[in-house]
Specification:
By secondary structure, this protein is α/β, with parallel strands linked by helices. It is built from eleven helices and nine strands. It has one domain (15-288): Rossmann fold, CATH 3.40.50.720. It has helices at 24-33, 47-59, 74-87, 112-140, 161-181, 199-202, 214-226, 236-247, 250-259, 271-274, 283-289, and strands at residues 15-18, 39-43, 63-67, 92-95, 143-148, 186-193, 196-197, 212-213, 231-234. It is globular, with a radius of gyration of 19 Å. The structure holds NADP nicotinamide-adenine-dinucleotide phosphate.
Length: 304
């Protein structure tokens, strides 16, 4: 059956934007694309890590432009990305930045602040990034956008309800855009990783089968993007397992998840009164919330 969404893409895109380049998967992607003649637009809020990464990429021959906006501020994201798209026509945009948050540490439900923090980055931030880069790509009639979702989009992790929901939203959004934009010359890919060794997974309180290093994840992503695969899914065995969970009767899937050790914490509701949520995210988030709640994030730090 012909795939009407399969359009030609660059094997070696010249100008690549990576959001969340300061994180585990983002840095590995940046370093894998860094080469002579390459333009890298690297985004992240942690300016120290961003500067170190830029130096490493420049040493490999790339010209680097940095962006430091907070993805929760959609207006700024769209404005800055539209401006930079005029100066540096973006061939490939990797919509990679994300945060996660686990139920646990004395919580019985997710607080609204924590829910908003995850949705603000994973959904609002991702869609604003697309809104920022897409108009120039459509005008040119060429471009590629990769949206980083997760295998949790196929079957949610009981420990991370909002995170799983946000990744399912990104998957659905990307799949829909692909059909709309292929005739206009813009390729859309959805990336669905399993467990990857990064700061994000370090805080995950459940089994992490078939976990892979970030460099290997970057290789999978690059290969899938060069082929313009609609879904870039890895590692394969875990992907098949998750896909099965999504089609089996739910009661059976939940039993399997429980037997494998994926469970939401079973705590009395009162515990929530004593502890606020813990936002498991990035260096910048952790530094910003350490020891004091911030009004900017409006995330309550767990009382120690
Ligand atoms: N690691 C895994 O096992 C795994 C599995 C499936 C999917 N994923 C997805 O892969 C992507 C990358 O994950 P990772 O493991 O590399 O995570 P990570 O190491 O924690 O990095 C997250 C990145 O997101 C950026 N970020 C977070 N909040 C932000 C905000 N408000 N504004 C701007 N940037 C923000 C961080 O930048 P700063 O630190 O500079 O703020 C950082 O660069 C995410 O979308 C994640 O959901 C990861």
């Amino acid at each position: 059956m012909p795939d009407l969404t399969q359009i030609p893409v660059w094997k070696k895109p010249r100008t690549v934007l990576i959001t969340g380049a300061t994180g585990g998967i983002g840095s590995a992607l940046a370093e894998s694309y860094a080469a002579q003649g390459q333009v890298l637009i690297l985004h992240g809020r942690d300016t120290t890590r961003l500067a170190e990464l830029s130096q490493r990429c420049e040493a490999l021959g790339a010209r680097v432009v940095t962006l430091t906006f907070d993805l929760r501020d959609a207006c700024v994201v769209i404005r800055e990305l539209r401006q930079i798209s005029q100066r540096e026509p973006i061939d490939l945009a990797l919509v990679n930045a994300g945060v996660t948050r686990m139920l646990g540490d004395g919580e019985a439900v997710e607080s609204w602040d924590a829910v908003r923090a995850v949705i603000g980055v994973n959904i609002d931030g991702a869609l604003a990034t697309v809104a920022g880069v897409l108009p120039a790509m459509r005008r040119r009639g060429s471009g590629q956008i990769a949206l980083v979702s997760s295998l949790a989009a196929y079957f949610g992790l009981p420990q991370a309800p909002t995170y799983s929901a946000s990744k399912a939203a990104v998957k659905a959004y990307g799949e829909t855009l692909r059909v709309w934009l292929a005739p206009q010359g813009v390729a859309i890919n959805v990336v669905l990783p399993g467990f990857v060794e990064t700061a994000m997974t370090a805080g995950f309180n459940g089994p992490k089968p078939a976990i892979i290093p970030a460099e290997r994840a970057a290789r999978h992503i690059r290969k899938g993007l060069a082929r313009n695969s609609p879904r870039i899914v890895f590692p394969r065995p875990l992907a098949w397992g998750t896909l099965w969970l999504s089609v089996l009767p739910q009661s059976l899937s939940h039993w399997i998840m429980g037997a494998l050790g994926y469970r939401a914490p079973d705590l009395p509701p009162k515990a929530e009164d004593r502890f606020g949520p813990t936002l498991l995210s990035t260096g910048a988030d952790r530094a910003a919330t350490r020891g004091r709640p911030t009004s900017e994030q409006n995330v309550t730090q767990r009382t120690r």
